[in-house]
Amino acid sequence: LRPVALAEAADVDATVSAQRLFERVSEGERFDVPAAVNGPSWVGLLPPRSGWEERMRGDVANVRAAVDSAKHFFRERAAGVTDRGALEEIAADVWERTCLGEVPMRCAHAAESLGLMGPGDGVAIAYSTFSWTRLLVPGGSVATRRGLLPSIPVIPLM
């Protein structure tokens, strides 16, 4: 979730590329909502609005350091590996590890990649519900569903 202020009231309900939206929001000026994208049906499952329980607090700097370490570890283990199945196993092993409470490293990596951790220090908070985990950092939050579906971060931008 990356909240942004709207210049005027708008009624928008669309699934768009997070990267394209992020690029436009980052410019800091008025922008048109990117074109809608089609994807697997599970991407429409949004995290719940309530029922979140705080699990752990930590420093953003420590979460950022854990992401840097995980990226280094992934690159080291994947060096020279060309088999896609083997690469996917390495990725699952690295990115499904937890970094703060129950939050998978995949969420922290998404938050870092989207610039949600910000440039400085701050507090990172891990939340969870029965089937979701969420990492809240100074610039927004990243939630992922666990259990029945693959743990791919769901980054609702509202």
Q: Count the strands?
A: 6
**What is the C-alpha radius of gyration, as a whole number of Å?**
16 Å
**SSE string:** HEHHEEHEEE
Query: Would you tell me the structural class of the helices and strands?
Result: alpha+beta
DSSP helical segment count: 4
Low-confidence spans: 148-158
Percent in helix: 25-40%
Main sheet properties: 4 strands, antiparallel
Global mean pLDDT? 83
Strand content: 15-25%
Q: Termini separation (Å)?
A: 7 Å
Strand order of the largest sheet: 1-4-5-6
| Large-scale geometry | globular
Structure overview:
With 158 residues, this protein is of the alpha+beta class. It has four helices and six strands. The strands form two sheets. Strands 1-4-5-6 form a four-stranded antiparallel β-sheet. Strands 2-3 form a two-stranded antiparallel sheet. A hairpin with a 2-residue loop joins strand 2 and strand 3 (103-104). It is globular and about 50 Å long. It starts with 17 loop residues before the first helix and ends in a 13-residue tail after the last strand. The model is unreliable at 148-158 (pLDDT under 50).
Give the helices and strands, then pairings:
Layout (H helix, E strand, L loop, with lengths): L17 H9 L26 E7 H19 L5 H12 L2 E3 L2 E2 H9 L9 E6 L3 E6 L2 E6 L13
Antiparallel strand pairs: 1-4, 2-3, 4-5, 5-6
Helix pairs in contact: 2-3, 2-4
